[in-house]
Target: Gamma-glutamyl-gamma-aminobutyraldehyde dehydrogenase
Amino acid sequence: MSLASHSTTHAAWQALAAELTVEKGLETRAFIDDAFVDAADGATLTTVNPATGAALAEVASCDAADAEVAVAAARAAVDGGAWSRLAPGRRKAVLLKLADLMAAHRHELALLDTLDMGKPVSSALGDLAGAIGCLRYQAECIDKLYGEVAPTGDNALGLVLREPLGVVACIVPWNFPLMMTAWKIAPALAAGNSVILKPSEKSPLSALRLASLAQEAGLPRGVFQVLPGFGHTVGRALALSMEVDCLAFTGSTGVGKQLMQYAGQSNLKKVFLECGGKSPNLVFADCKDLDRVAKHAAAAIFHNQGEVCIAGSRLLVENSIREAFVDKVLAAAEAMQPGDPLDPASFMGAMVDRAQHERVLDYIRRGVEEGATLRTGGEATEVDGKGLFIPPTVFDGVTETMAIGREEIFGPVLAVFGFDSEEEAVRLANDSDYGLAAGLWSQDIDRIMRITRRLRSGQVFVNNWADMDQTVPFGGVKQSGNGRDKSHHSLEEYSDLKSVWMTLAT
Model:
């Protein structure tokens, strides 16, 4: 199912969406032990298109019984060695084939994410490109990471071997369904592990389609499985399993803390977390092109409806340019209004569901009550008379005590702070429970180097926001988590080191 490159119009996407139905082959069952199956107890969950309110499908809702079967199949695959002991070059070939299949079905996969969680289809296509790039990068890394020979005397040989962890459970969020999935499963599979994917109950459809492509690519039985369902049911069961060796999670800080507790209550499994953020974006008066910077600052928070872990939700502006710069941000926001997610021209789509929609509106109400100045947005809106949409919303005059300036909203709400000195800017930026990302805009290289080193953040974007590729790791510090996605460093996380010491005859 695909679109010709010249046919990716609004109407063409609408026509393709009409074909994605259960009656026409849309997969809604769990993928366990190399087969699509209903949940053991027959339970289902309803996935809804937030742009229209229409139900898309009834999807299998797995629980502990399904997790037990999947974990057993994954363990059998590890022990059997068809993947875990397969030569790295052969694993690479399978993963590259999977990447090619994803590319061939990119329109279908992107559309599933758009329908499921409301993001613009143009954004979903960008996510797909990132997911495919991640899979190809990790596949190419497989046969380029070497073990070590330790320095010893003539009477010994010390080897450091790199081995798979075993069974890896990946729990991914709804905001970037396939891209976050690729960031987790690509290095885990590349390292030789068996992977159980738990997609968000709000966006399970693309993960189930990915399972069929993985099967077609040649991943052996039990090596990749998909268990749709809720976090408190199947997610909890995977986290507490004594046979799961590692949890890889992207999501809220609260759930991340819970997963670490589950790991301690079970088998001390490794836990890699990428959690929440309240990222500062620092703008100094010496910037050359404030119009360009303003557009980037607006996109940093309004992209993907603000449902982004690294959203630049705290804008810190030097007071000497603050008033003029905020006006430029407001002008940029005018061009970023929500529209039909199936329209390639739409910059923003719908909020993922009614609960998130109400959560964001509640934060906006709190911002007004706490005394911040609402400069634009703030009211729910509809597209074609329906849907869960919120326009770009900007608050000025935000202080450190306000909820909109401290808590992760996960919506299109920008909090603007002012500062007068470099010291004050750094203090404001670091005054947060989170440390996932930070932005810095300045032409002063000395200032850039000073501040970059002082920002308590896993990543710092200098004169850009989120311009990254697969070669650099992604992750945070403080309550933003401890894991790292992307780059060869993530491949290293999904393997164990085994030391071998041989005594040699002399």
Summary: The longest helix spans residues 121-141. The mean pLDDT is 97. The CA atoms of residues 408 and 434 lie 9 Å apart. The chain has two domains: 28-275+481-498, 280-469.
